[in-house]
Amino acid sequence: MAASNFKCTQLSGALTRQLLESVDSVLFDCDGVIWRGDQAIPGAPEVINTLKKRGKRVFFVTNNSTKTRKMYADKLGKLGFNATEEEVFGTAYCSAIYLKNVCKVEGKVYLIGSNAMRQELEKMGIQPLGVGPDPISGVPIDWANVPLDHEVQAVLVGFDEHFSYMKLNRALQYLCNPDCQFVGTNTDTRLPLEGGKSVPGTGCLLRAVETAAQRQAQVVGKPSNFMFDCVASQFGLNPERCLMIGDRLDTDIMLGSNCGLKTLLTLTGVSTVADAEANRKSDCPHRQRMVPDYYIDSIADILPALEA
Amino acid sequence: MAGAAGGGGGGCVTLRGSQFQDLLDAKHNVLFDCDGVIWNGETAVTGAPEVVSLLKQRGKRVFFVTNNCTRPRESYVQKFSRLGFTDVAEEEIFSSAYCSAAYLRDVARVQGKVYVIGCSGVVRELQDAGVHVVEDVGGDEPGTNISNCPLDPDVKAVLVGYDENFTFMKLAKACCYLRNSECLFLATDPDPWHPLRGGRITPGSGSLTAALETASSRKATVIGKPGRFMFECIASQFDLDPARSLMVGDRLETDILFGSNCGLSTMLTLTGVSTMEEAQKYKDSESPEHKGCVPDYVVESIADFLEALEE
After folding, report:
1. So what's the pLDDT on residue A195?
2. Does residue B239 come out as left (phi exceeding 0), alpha (psi in the -120 to 50 range) or beta?
3. What distance in Å separates the CA atoms of residue A76 and residue A82, rounded to the nearest whole number?
4. What are phi and psi of B157, to 5 degrees?
5. To which H or E segment does residue B297 belong?
6. Does the annotation count B33 as an active-site position?
7. What share of chain B is helix, strand, coil (3-state, %, to 5)?
8. Cα distance from B169 to chain A (closest Cα, Å)?
9. CB-CB neighbors (< 8 A) of B214 in chain A
């Protein structure tokens, strides 16, 4: 249905119905797709709720590591979306799964991240160290010799408003041991806030740690396949019958392309049609993976096709 | 071999006997890195004070070129004295902090203020150069967040360097200033980590710069080695001929590459970070960008010069 030889088509009318009939599951990014900060995109709750009424499965896949699945479910509920915890896949939750199942961490992790990340790790039986403010004192030789917990098997970096030189230092000291694993939640350079503004994102903090340690982190979040694999393995998804809807070509659409999903770019967030077109015209295979099958002004525009 | 002009792609030659003398005859200026070359922490490398002293007695000009921005020059003078180096003058010391200040004042000619993420050593050099600093003292006041943090409209440049008080808030503020494409973006040095005694390391300016570059989607102009500016800074004050100058350092990617970039002869000393094996690896590498990291000469320690100097 979504022929690979024509891409970046505007979605409307009959095409919308055909697309929806060709998929069983719809995966939504959150920021810039279903909400902006603490405001739902107008019409978004109706779209999600109607998709479910029509028998589609709906999932939420977000790189934002600042909330647990429960916190996301609460936010979704507050904004009028019918959604359950099980349908939410944020990087706080997925990083915990990654550390447990892929990194095989048993024991402790040095965490640069939020309380939400701490909670998800604890639920997975992993003990995180380091959350919260970490003020500096003493002189450089003290910092180089900070006491290290020998049970720490990995360093995990997510969004942390308390990020500081001292935390960077501790992460570096752990990562000097090549057996200590190194994982990052995502590489997004900006983090959208409630209220509409944005601040430097996890990608910046991760780059600081990678540079100091001269090591590359394993990254859990989009566009890495792992986020889709998490959903697929829990719910038995067939990629060909899945639609990924997102606002970012370099994370959401790339993930969709890499996993063989159909992809829809919504224009209520970061990327533009011009960006998509530029990728489509480029010779670079990497950029070709950042071209959506379809685009739409807002997911609210799907509603007429659903209600027909 | 000895006496050859520098410029990269060196031979990694271990000097012996009279070769030291030949090299000294050919070079009028010797530039030393500090950490790992003339001292390690608070301990002078054995023989280093004598080498510096004897070079000067022989009429050579000696300069100290360091990426370490944690002290103002005045404090370096005191350290030299404390560690037994006599007659090292402030004018001979070029730190990345001093050179960043010189760049802002003389090259960029900044009118207005500079937002600094940096330690007191950096701030002090800027103030000494008459550059107007907006210093972020840090400390998260309750209720302050990036949405209500006031920005100073006079800020014309952002300088990032080593800062043990680095916070997320500083990163966010600097990023806001850098949204204006007219605002300059400078970094003191690119070092990802700093070596301390006992093989330990701590995060360097380079790691903080990486965070800010990622946040702002902009590349910083980096003042320190291996960039050329620090040499240009010295040359503008002292009229150096690169062909008659020798750079002595312990970090291949910083000191040796710096020397290569500036057309100096280069010498690796093994009292610091880089090893002979690493130098050999760069030498054997096919990549053109590795050529500049290969030193012309290698010594165990700069004390190896003593025999030639004492004759």
Report:
1. 74
2. left
3. 7
4. -155, 150
5. strand B297-299
6. yes
7. 40, 20, 40
8. 8
9. 189, 200, 203-204, 207
Bond preceding residue A223 cis, omega within 30 of 0: yes
Out of A160, A189, A214, the one facing B214 most closely (by C-beta) is A189
Distance CA B37, CA B46 (A): 10
Q: What are the tokens at A8? A: 């970046």
Residues paired with residue B237 on neighbouring β-strands, in sequence order: none
The secondary structure of residue A31, as a DSSP letter, is: B
Q: What interface predicted TM-score (ipTM) does this complex get?
A: 0.94
Residue B8: count of CB within 10 angstroms of its CB: 21
CA–CA–CA angle B114, B105, B222 (5° rounding)? 70
* Positions of A marked catalytic: 29, 31
Check whether B7 has a pLDDT greater than 60: no
Alpha helix (H) residue ranges in chain B: 18-26, 48-57, 73-82, 96-102, 120-128, 168-178, 205-216, 229-238, 257-261, 276-284, 306-310
Of A161, A165, A204, Cβ closest to residue B203: A165
Half-sphere exposure of B275 toward its Cβ, with a 13 Å CA cutoff? Answer: 4
* Chain B residues with CB-CB distance to A194 below 8 A: none
| Backbone angles phi and psi of B30, in degrees to 5 | -120, 125
| Among B30, B34, B5, CA closest to B250 | B34
Confidence band of A5 (pLDDT split at 50, 70, 90): low
CB contact under 8 A, A200 and B200: no
Contact A168 B207 (CB under 8 A): yes
Instruction: Look at chain B and count its residues.
Output: 311
Strand order in the sheet with B113-117: B132-135, B113-117, B155-160, B184-187, B221-222
> Do residue A212 and residue B207 have CB atoms under 8 angstroms apart?
yes
Q: Which of A143, A190, A204 sits opposite B211 (nearest CB)?
A: A204
Name the residue among A140, A141, A204 with its Cβ closest to that of B171. Answer: A204
Mean pLDDT of A272-300: 96
In chain B, residues with a C-beta closer than 8 Å to the C-beta of A176 are: 201
Find the catalytic residue in B33, B255, B296, B304: B33
How do residues B105-117 score in pLDDT, each as one tens digit?
A: 999 999 999 999 9
A contact test, residue of B40, B69, B167, B179 with most A CBs within 10 A:
B167
A126 contacts A95 by C-beta, under 8 angstroms: no
As a residue count, chain A comes to 308
pLDDT score for B282: 96
- Mark yes or no for CB contact B202/A162 under 8 Å: no
Tell me if A163 and B168 make a contact (CB, 8 A cut-off).
yes
| Exposed/middle/buried for residue B155 (C-beta within 10 Å: 0-12, 13-18, 19+) | buried
pLDDT band at B138, cuts 50/70/90?
A: low
